[in-house]
Design brief:
Layout: H1 6-18, H2 20-33, E1 35-36, E2 39-40, H3 47-63, E3 66-69, E4 75-79, E5 88-94, H4 107-122, E6 131-136, E7 145-147, H5 153-158, H6 166-169, E8 170-172, H7 179-185, E9 205-213, H8 218-222, E10 226-232, E11 234-244, E12 248-249, H9 261-281, E13 287-289, E14 293-294, E15 304-305, E16 308-317, H10 320-341, E17 344-346, E18 351-353, E19 356-357, H11 360-372, E20 377-382, H12 387-393, E21 398-403, H13 418-435
Length: 436
């Protein structure tokens, strides 16, 4: 890895700061043109996402970048480097959103890529190899597609990870059409995904780096503008768990004779909370939630002891052994609580997503860049999934930069200060210009 000298670095940083006007315009235009009831809606393989891709391609042409796409509709905005046949460096993120979501989730990474590319070009720096800003399709596909699919549709399609069956089994919630037909509606070429080599591979891509807003409060609480992502948590999920007890009269049956499904389920969740805290106390990484918890609306009543409770479990960690241990412990805790309270738990089989560590050398390079550029930052884990994990899983070195966001993600109140965004883009431009 090479490094820019001090004078070149200073010149690049001035041009990054100058590119913030372009970034602000993109954010403002995107918010205005995809506004939906206070938030924004850019449906995966839908009109909002397509509008965003058209906007960004037009801006890339104005900047003087080469514009292309792949059969899945991912956009590439390329700044030529010295060795055009060498594996390229890619930066970017997605342009779709959840329904009535925020303007920065995903889009910030593409805006930062364009701003960084413009700054590198205007500073007169020719990178060692091509730099491509990638506008990824359908990262938020879980909000827009039902049926059988593996998520992260755009990046997985580009990397050759999509299965042909997904074109039929992933069904768009807006149109009711299968993925392949939905893609064709927007002039894309799904039939070409499987009759040729993948658009991206470790032979053609040197590295991938993604800037993204943080989706939690960690940076805000630490009063830091930037985070260096060390890894993306995997998960163990019980998607349709339930506890079966006995419906009885809530006033007539003595407490010790009840088989209360809600109290038993609550005890299980508190036991899991204690397990998670023990992991944290030991220096491990863990978060968990029961995102759904409910009784049967047709049977429950103010005057009944609940005889059934349904819930989900979402356990996340950077360590696969922690996921395995907590999922096994959940089952053993459920069995013990069931025996004691006279109820039966049916957790079902846990589904697993593997944790993904970001590339250690590139993560260290980001830390070095923060020190050199005087950017206050911290190491941070990503609790949500990102396209970066698909690149790393394919053997392409991947890294991520988080930018502070006070109000969480997937909501209309996402809050990113442009001063923080500028610092993240400075770090990104420095990495792209010569560090990768």
């Amino acid at each position: 890895m090479t490094r820019l000298d001090e004078s070149t670095t200073e010149r690049l940083m001035r041009h990054v700061d100058g590119s913030m006007a372009l970034a602000q315009k993109l954010f403002d235009d995107l918010a205005e043109r995809t506004a939906d009831g206070g938030g924004v809606t850019r449906a995966s393989y839908g009109e909002g996402e397509q509008l965003a891709h058209d906007m960004f391609a037009a801006m890339a042409r104005e900047i003087g970048l080469e514009v292309s796409d792949d059969p899945a509709g991912n956009g590439y905005y390329t700044l030529p480097g010295k060795e055009r046949q060498a594996p390229r460096v890619i930066t970017g993120s997605h342009l779709d959103s959840v329904p009535k979501g925020g303007n920065f989730d995903g889009a910030a990474g593409v805006v930062a890529g364009l701003a960084a590319a413009a700054a590198i070009k205007d500073a007169g720096i020719v990178p060692p190899q091509d730099i491509a800003v990638m506008a990824v399709r359908s990262e938020e596909c879980s909000s827009w597609f039902t049926g059988d699919h593996g998520g992260h549709l755009g990046s997985r399609a580009a990397l050759g990870l999509m299965k042909p069956a997904e074109l039929e089994t992933a069904i768009h919630l807006g149109s009711g059409m299968p993925l392949g037909r939905q893609m064709k509606e927007f002039g894309l070429r799904p039939g070409q995904l499987f009759d040729r080599p993948p658009s991206l591979s470790r032979d053609t891509v040197k590295a991938y780096i993604e800037l993204h807003i943080e989706q939690g409060p960690v940076l805000d609480a630490a009063e830091l503008p930037v985070g260096v992502v060390t890894g993306i948590r995997g998960n163990a999920r019980a998607r349709a768990a339930r506890c079966l007890g006995e419906y009885t009269h809530s006033g007539a049956v003595p407490q010790h004779q009840r088989h209360d499904a809600v109290l038993a389920s609550a005890e299980l969740l508190l036991a899991l909370e204690a397990d998670a805290q023990s992991v944290l106390d030991g220096g491990g990484d863990i978060v968990f939630a029961a995102g759904k918890f409910y009784t049967d609306a047709d049977l429950h009543s103010l005057s009944k002891v609940p005889g059934e409770a349904r819930f989900t479990l979402d356990i996340r960690s950077l360590d696969r052994q922690t996921l395995d241990r907590l999922s096994v412990h959940a089952a053993s805790q459920a069995a013990a609580i069931g025996r004691r309270r006279g109820v039966r738990f049916e957790l079902g089989a846990f589904s697993f997503s593997e944790p993904t560590a970001m590339h250690p050398a590139h993560t260290q390079c980001l830390r070095d860049g923060c020190r050199r550029l005087s950017i206050d930052a911290m190491d941070i884990a990503s609790g949500g999934g990102h396209d970066a994990q698909e690149f790393e899983r394919c053997g392409i070195p991947a890294s991520m930069i988080f930018v502070r966001n006070a109000n969480g993600s997937h909501n209309a109140d996402e809050s990113m200060e442009m001063e923080d965004f500028a610092k993240g883009t400075r770090l990104l431009a420095w990495m792209l210009a010569a560090a990768l």
